[in-house]
Amino acid sequence: MEPVYVAGVGMTRFGVLDDSITELAEKAAVEAMRDSNSIEHKFDYVIVGSQDPEEFTGQGHLSTVLADRLGIVPAGATRVETGPSAGSSAFEEAVALVGAGLASLVLVIGVEKMSGVDRGAASRIIAKMVSLESEARYGATPAALAALVARRYMHDYGLTRDDLSLIPVKAHKNGAKNPLAHFQNEVTVEKVNAGRIVSDPLTLYDCSPTSDGAAALVVASEEAVAVLESQNESVRVLGIGHATDYHAVQHRLSLTSLRATVVAAESAFRMARVKPKDLDVCELHDAFSILELIDMEDIGLAKPGRAIELVKSGTSQVDGRIPVNTTGGLKARGHPTGATGVAQIRDTVLQLRGSAPKGLQVRDAEIGLTHNIGGFGNNMVVSILRRR
Amino acid sequence: MHVVSKMSISASKCKSCDRTVIPPRTICPYCGPKAGDMSQITVGEEGTVLSYTLSQMPPEGFDPPILLALVQLQHNAVVLCLGNPEDSSRIQIDKRVKVLSGDDGRFHFSPVEI
Ligand SMILES: [Zn+2]
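Above: inputs. Below: predicted complex with zinc ion.
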């Protein structure tokens, strides 16, 4: 593969916002173009990651619409959908196009506008990710499936409710310092424990919110980076992996490990020629608190059942040895599904540039990893980035 | 809800990897078409709870709370089942339960008294 770089990044605030889906996408995209000095250059493609703009907003044909609204016609325009990992999958397409020499400058936009429908409708749209035959017909939601996983994990490894609550506490602690986060308030273990039960043992604070928001990246070849004179700000794409698991949880080979993460991470590490111990910062898909622990184990940061030790010792805090979700994760940064994967890469790029928000910068971060889930525990994309 | 008691549950077993899946299929999800068509079998109604949850916020169309359990049946086939929320205090991981196919086309479980 030819060298591929992320030359520019942009992101809107995440939360419940007034902007339309196209306005959100435009704001993030223009910021990424300015950030990479590419505003006067010709884009070969725009790749848009969005889970379900038709149902959430009624907006169809999103990639073509955005090429037009951004004034980058005749760039090729494609929308990618892999559920909530759509943003990372859009990034993967851009990396593949540039890495294969088919393009030199590609705009990636991840966007979701979820607040335009009421909560019941939003959960009905989101619940389409789970198996219709074996899960949705039973009233199972992603949260209920996460609860089944959490209860089994607690049973097998002795994880307590207080232990699990440390995950949202850390997420909110970091989110409170992230000016773009959906939630910028700290919470306590007591508050998490006393939260409204969604599906026991999980409370409201174990679950990421539905949010509006967009993030964008400019993906560029070595030559394009030189033309843009954005060498100093560019981050190299070292590796990327993508894997699925069996759709219904009942057909998976483990309840306490997500095989798709293991496979995607192994591919990404192999391609990047680095190991889990080489990572300086990670963005992991904590749609539910229990997943942050399982993700840490599945990408190789801890043995099965042991991730909580890294949380308790502060190892996964911003100033720890392997910081996880420094900008609040899905829990506090928010989770506009199609935007999440792009936001993870954007936040990791800022970490590797040394320009993360005040109080969130990891010291001397050189290698970062992002992990994005695209279903309940399915369709994972893992990316590894390195400072130049 | 009327639960029609059927003594057996339809499943498919792979001739190559020996894994059993419910509901029945033709192609083994673990092996793909190279393993040939799966054998259509039935499995017994008794099983073991792998995990469970009482969901307080199910989607539109369900009256909360709903009790859900993943139950491991014969040949290690696993199914998600609905239970009676009033039984939730009697359900634990590893508890023996009976799974029946309801006339609503879904699986329902109830605790087995020992
Ligand atoms: Zn098989």
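Chain B touches chain A at residues 21-23, 29-30, 50-62, 66, 68, 70, 78-82, 93, 105-106 (CB under 8 Å).
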